[in-house]
Write a structure and sequence with these properties.
Elements: H1 3-15, E1 38-41, E2 57-60, E3 71-73, E4 78-86, E5 89-96, E6 100-105, E7 107-109, E8 116-117, E9 122-126, E10 137-143, E11 146-148, H2 151-154
Antiparallel strand pairs: 1-2, 2-10, 3-9, 4-5, 4-8, 5-6, 6-10, 7-9, 10-11
Length: 175
């Protein structure tokens, strides 16, 4: 019996539980629209997979509204895995490294499924339709198939800072 090999296998299995869930992209995403970048609605995580929430960012294309025909760019390098209509709106989805994907809607794509795209490449134009029709472009992000805030990749999530409560602290930390 080879105990050292057994211990190595057990150590590798145990270490796999401590591997980070998400590996950040090598470079931050670029905004899918030209400046100025105005967010009309922030990401709101749902309590469960089927609960209410806002699974992305709503972006104004010209700073005020989403101009139909405005150019839309790939947020990061990847491969187009969907370019078509979902219910009442045109949607474009791109798979990126690290089991990460982005989607933009309503967007009429100028790229096709299976096509490789570069970070910042023109991939489509703002179109009418969906909850953002004539108001915004919706940018979504999924990591391992689950919705996450696109701000994690745009570099816009500020680190949380805990501030002290007012008044003196008592022993044990109670106030």
């Amino acid at each position: 019996m080879q105990l050292p090999g057994l211990f190595v296998a057990a150590a590798l299995a145990a270490a796999s539980f401590f591997v980070p869930f998400a590996v950040p992209p090598t470079e931050p995403w670029v905004w899918p629209l030209t400046p100025p970048h105005r967010v009309l609605a922030e990401y709101v995580a749902p309590a469960t997979d089927y609960s209410a929430g806002h699974r992305g960012l709503d972006l104004a294309a010209n700073g005020l509204t989403a101009d139909v025909g405005a150019p839309v760019f790939a947020v990061s390098a990847g491969v187009v895995f969907f370019a078509g209509t979902v219910v009442d709106r045109p949607v474009l989805s791109i798979r990126h490294a690290g089991d990460l994907s982005s989607s933009v809607e309503p967007v009429t794509a100028v790229v096709s499924a299976g096509e490789a795209v570069a970070r910042g490449q023109l991939v489509g134009y703002v179109a009418p339709g969906g909850h953002c029709s004539a108001r915004c472009v919706h940018l979504g992000a999924r990591l391992h198939g689950r919705y996450v805030s696109p701000r994690l990749y745009l570099g816009g999530v500020r680190r949380a800072v805990l501030l002290p409560l007012e008044g003196p602290a008592t022993p044990g930390g109670a106030r």
